[in-house]
Amino acid sequence: MDKKWYEKNGAEGDVVISTRVRLARNLEKYPFPARCSNELRQQIAEKVKDAVLNSNSVISSRFSALDVDNISMGERVSLVERHLVSPEFISDKGDKTLLLLDDESVSIMINEEDHVRLQVMCEGFDLDRAYEQASRIDTLLDERLKFAFSDTLGYLTQCPTNLGTGMRASVMLHLPALHDAKAMRKITENLSKLGITVRGAYGEGSEPTAAFYQLSNQITLGIGEKTAIENLRNITKQLIAQELQSRQAMAKRIEVQDKIYRAEGILKSARLIDGGEALKHLSRVRFGVTTGLIKDVSLDTINRLIVEIQPATLMKQTGKQLAPGERDAVRATLIRNNIGG
Q1: Angle CA(67)–CA(78)–CA(38) in degrees, nearest 5?
Q2: What is the rounded end-to-end Cα distance, in angstroms, of the chain?
Q3: pLDDT digits over 265-308, tens only?
Q4: 146: region left, alpha or beta (phi > 0 left; psi from -120 to 50 alpha)
Q5: Please, are residues 51 and 116 in contact by the beta-carbon 8 Å criterion?
């Protein structure tokens, strides 16, 4: 099986960790999820599962179905940590099903805020690949399910902010230089005027941590999908250029180098480390790798660890319920084994 998206470094990977395209869709002749009875939600889940798992598509056999209502909260949280579902999707029960491709690059949430939330993830900066994959699966589903669509408003969604294309395209960025220079507040204000939202790594409601930011299009009505993609692409390219220019200047400063090498030393030797501290040091080491200060660690390794050190995912990998102190010990061992301590 191929590596998962978060185990690889892609195009412009020194700054862009991942790209995501998400489509919100609802079935014709069914009320929105908030108005659906349990019986109707079950019908919707069965229809969408059948459309995916029993289609003639070459990838249909690679999907598996997960009944989210019947798994532990720890397993649900791990799905969020791996960016496979939204926090809202696991917050309560209600005939929720996840269809997941074997490499975790495609996930289909059934009965979230909308009947269908189709998401495609890929490593690095690759909006075209993510969009084309999402568009192919969207077309396949629409042929079998018939999505609610208005010639005037476009795709109909439960929340009016998603009307139109129903598409949210986003990129996950690592911006340590702009973050440390306190430039992100002004950048965020300017981008909001251009229809681009800046959030934390877990989207709406999350705060940026350790210099990881998510950029996404805010406007879905009155604009085409490809135009929205192009706008996001151009703005991301500008941010990449700004970040790289700032990095080269910052990397020459002795106090910055000291922070990077101290972070590397801690990750190589720590026996206990909590998630927040680990993420902060991984961010600094990642900065060091991209500026050539650290040469014996790969970005693939850093990207994978950023996901694998999350609490619920850590416990999923060990197959055990762990107290916070136990997680800190397991996390430290995992990092040492991968960073080269």
Answers
A1: 30
A2: 29
A3: 999 999 999 999 999 999 999 999 999 999 999 999 999 999 99
A4: left
A5: no
Place of tokens 């050190």: 309
Q: Could you tell me the CA-to-CA distances from 8 to 33, 193, 197 in Å, in that order?
A: 35, 33, 26
β partners of residue 120: 21, 106
Tell which phi-psi region holds residue 292, choosing left (phi > 0), alpha (psi between -120 and 50) or beta.
left
Residue type, 61: S
**Separation between Cα atoms, residue 299 and residue 308, nearest integer Å:** 14
Strand order of the sheet with strand 16-25? 63-67, 97-101, 106-110, 116-123, 16-25, 167-174, 212-217, 196-199
User: Can you give the pTM of this predicted structure?
Assistant: 0.92
State the CB neighbour count (10 A cutoff) for residue 140. 17
SS (H, E, C) the chain: CCCCHHHCCCCCCCCEEEEEEEEEECECCCCCHHHCCHHHHHHHHHHHHHHHHCCCCCCHHHEEEEEHHHCCHHHHHHHHHCCCCCHHHHCCCCCCEEEEECCCCEEEEECCCCCEEEEEEEECCCHHHHHHHHHHHHHHHHHHHCECEECCCEECCCCHHHCECCEEEEEEEECHHHHHCCCHHHHHHHHHCCCEEEEECCECCCCCECCEEEEEECCCCCCCHHHHHHHHHHHHHHHHHHHHHHHHHHCCCHHHHHHHHHHHHHHHHCCCCCHHHHHHHHHHHHHHHHCCCCCCCCHHHHHHHHHHCCHHHHHHHHCCCCCHHHHHHHHHHHHHHHHCC
Say how far apart CA 157 and CA 162 lie, in whole Å: 6
> For residue range 211-237, what is the model confidence (pLDDT) as tens digits?
999 999 988 888 899 999 999 999 999
CA pair distance 284, 91, nearest whole angstrom = 33
pLDDT at 334 over 80: yes
Bridge partners of 59, per DSSP, are: none
At residue 97, what is the residue type? Answer: T
